[in-house]
Amino acid sequence: MKGVRGGSRAGRIFSEDSSNLRGQKFGRLKGSEPMEEDFSVPYGRNNSPSKRERGPPIAMPQNGSPTNNDASSPFTKSPWSTHHVSIPTASEDNYTPNVLIGSLVREEGHIYSLAASGDLLYTGSDSKNIRVWKNQKEFSGFKSNSGLVKAIVIANEKIFTGHQDGKIRVWKISSKDASLHKRVGTLPTFKDYIKSSMKPSNYVEVRRHRNALWIRHFDAISSLSMSEDQKLLYSASWDKTFKVWRTSDFKCLESVIAHDDAVNSIVAGFDGLVFSGSADGTVKVWRRELQGKGTKHFFSQTLLKQECAVTAVTVSPDATVVYCGSSDGLINFWERQMQLAHGGILRGHKLAILCLVTAGSLVFSGSADMGICIWKRRESEHICLSMLTGHSGPVKCLAVERDAESLSDESRWILYSGSLDKSVKMWQISEQAPAMVPTSQQLHYPLDVQSAAAPNLLPHAPSFSSQGRISQKRQ
């Protein structure tokens, strides 16, 4: 998401964001570091981070002491500490399906991106490192020497990372050692960059008195998305464009000037449609057409136009609903079966929505108010199952994977949340969790504003705390 100016000094809630929103939009983040040469150093068992990167271990347990699992970690003197809590069983009186099961904390940098694949979790931060976790234990890692990691997406054996320096880096797991990741490419490729630079027609005006090659983002990459067949990669940037890349040879097929301000989110949806959300307050729909070996994207329609910035866009797993989060803390949604007619608004956060992710019938929203709201869709209605609290900073990114230990008759998920408090938390989530009961201090649902019927509300989940109560100010 396009951030507000801010430094990395301790004590600030945001590193690249602050609570001052000019015109309810997020201002442009400017990197304070000079752009470095693009080379990457994968490190594993034989390559430990520098002393500057290591630092002392940080302990999350409230009733415990710091731990350092040097023997089990592939890194020498691992600076990460893992805190696991016992998971209640169904026989216990205080059983709730939605609970915190662990935390990963490091004084390394704010967490900006997450990606989960099977038993692996990839975490990206402003330290320029990508950490790899297996079964909630430190497993591996690799780094790039320029550009904090703002987006991660996994396609088969390749890992794509989007950076603040406008580059996309491609990594592959070593066939000889699963803990080693090798950089196999940078988008655009050096060959394509040199070839394109020879033709003046390949330059476009990006700012006054400044031209750049159309195949390269000249501002931070904010979001990455893969097409359903994983043949195309979409990258959104603060340079107001999104670009289309062929994953087989890393060639840039197309660059689309999509918005009047930074593009904060891009997602490849259904029926050849692509959805983009921007700081200009709009959500736009683009129709993809294949033309020979290339592509052409045509503007289809604008789903939303508002004053405040659109910060996140996602599509439900069954490809029936499109969701978007905004800097005003609201989530709008549109239904495919209604020809993308507006379905309603979900009201559950006090501050800006920073990330959205879906799984099964659930929608997860992370916010600058430090809470995570879990919504359950039942046909066209949505109910709030839980408000997860525990982070001490804005929730910047989310990732979700099916819980391999869930029962056959229960849809259960593992949710990972990354925050600007420099931690990643793991939550066990069940679609069978009871809904919260509104109190006098909470906003009543209609969560679907077009429905006057309130959902049936069951006893609230104990994972909800008073810190995450819904603001009364949003009417």
Characterization of this structure:
This protein is mostly beta strands. The chain is 3% helix and 45% strand. It has two helices and 32 strands. It has helices at residues 51-54, 190-197; strands at 40-43, 81-84, 99-105, 111-117, 120-125, 129-134, 137-144, 149-155, 158-163, 168-173, 181-187, 203-207, 210-213, 221-226, 232-237, 241-246, 251-257, 263-268, 273-278, 282-291, 294-305, 310-315, 321-326, 330-335, 341-347, 353-359, 362-367, 372-378, 381-388, 395-402, 412-419, 423-430. The strands form eight sheets. A five-stranded antiparallel sheet has the order 1-7-6-5-4, with no helix packed on it. The protein has a five-stranded antiparallel sheet with strand order 2-3-32-31-30, with no helix packed on it. The chain is globular, with a radius of gyration of 22 Å. 48% of the residues are buried. The model is unreliable at 3-95 and 439-475 (pLDDT under 50).
